[in-house]
Amino acid sequence: MSDRAAERRPRTTGLDLHLGRLDGNVRASLTDAVRDAIRAGRLAPGTRLPSSRALAADLQVARNTVVRVYSELINEGWLTGLQGSGTKVSEQVADFVAERPRPAVTRSRPGHDLRAGHPDLSSFPRDEWIRAVKKTVSTAPFEAFGYTDPHGRGELRDTLARYLTRARGLRAHAGNVVVCSGAAEGVRLVAAALAAAGVTRVAVEEFGLPAQRRTLADAGLETVPLAVDADGVDPSALDGSPAIGAVLLTPSHQFPLGVALRYDRRAAIVEWARRRGALVIEDDYDGEFRYDRSPVGALQGLDREHVLYLGTASKSLAPGLRLGWLVVPDHLIESIVAQKGETEETAGFVNQLAMTEFVESGAYDRHIRAMRAQYRRRRRHLAETLARHAPDVRMAGTAAGLHVLLEQAGRTGHELVRRIAAEQLTVEPLEFFRHPGAASDRDGVVIGFAAPSPSGWSGVLDALVRALR
Length: 469
What we know:
By secondary structure, the protein is α/β, with parallel strands linked by helices. The chain is built from 15 helices and 17 strands. The chain has helices spanning about 5-10, 25-40, 50-60, 65-75, 95-100, 125-140, 155-170, 185-195, 210-220, 265-275, 330-340, 350-360, 365-390, 415-420, 455-469; strands spanning about 80, 85-90, 110-115, 175-180, 200-205, 220-225, 230, 230-235, 245-250, 280-285, 305-310, 325, 395, 405-410, 425, 430, 445-450.
């Protein structure tokens, strides 16, 4: 091997963890392997572990996989993460390991899941949804019980086109709406269509959902990170990268930093797409929930031929419904529907027809208004409580959505995760969402404030404050 080739090899850890082969689900295998190494004494209390970047290079896995494993093990108490000292095996596992040499994991899981993207399921409008299901099933034509059209039920596509035009400012009609089973399937369909069209590189925000980046990579697309500041993604780098054929954004409420894309930048990105013949993929992540003003209109309203819109009922209603939708430019609709027809994954016809009735009856609008008011109160309560009891904690982002980013000077995201986990709360560090090529060194913890029931919120907030003091 040449010296230059050797220089290009990833830097390794210098510490052999003897983790063995990682089969099947790599994240689960790695988590189990680290636990087993601690139980067996190969990793003694206080042992400093490799950085997430170094261990990922050693194991040839994605860095975010290692970040997620470290975060989970910190939550469970096996590891600690402290600023300046890295990730270590917890000193507190010594007695646990000595008493039970190789037990199954018996530590209780945290009592409240505050990971981002979880709505308050206790507020799901069960009665109105049941009425919609009963009405649609009792009146549905017999053909509705057959195989589902990959395009989606025509009734729902027509209803969604009108609703999105009215509520989100889209330029939509039923022929361009494709019903899918959620955001994950939507991104997969778009990625496959882009790859089939010859696109090789997609720009993404430097912080975002790792699962979406993996979906793009699985389709053979390289992702290029774009910097995000207080005004949203910086589009200036797009013109300097001629090979970029698409950009994936969360413009209404950037996930997870929580900022909104400034209007002049919105216009600049659309103009770039027009000049290049490129595609803007707009993930309208929790775009219905803005608390200080009316929700920002969708980017797709500026250009229906260069912006593809992705929406879902997962945040507004419940992820278990498996309902999402794409509003697709004319030149991609045939490819998207063809890609969808090659799989059996689809939203069931009952939920499609029930959603149609739910929107047409006005129940969806009523539910959105009620949840917007509830989440507004909850976010304000969180901000006021932190200002009073943990004034050194900065709550970043606009007054919108179902999550916030918390930053605290002197504490890393992993240390915050550990402290919060000690209060029986599950959260994720900002690092988990960072693109491997991102230049930003921002750190913190992402808190989803929507999931706890109204009756449980006060206790959750008290526990969070204790962790942050």
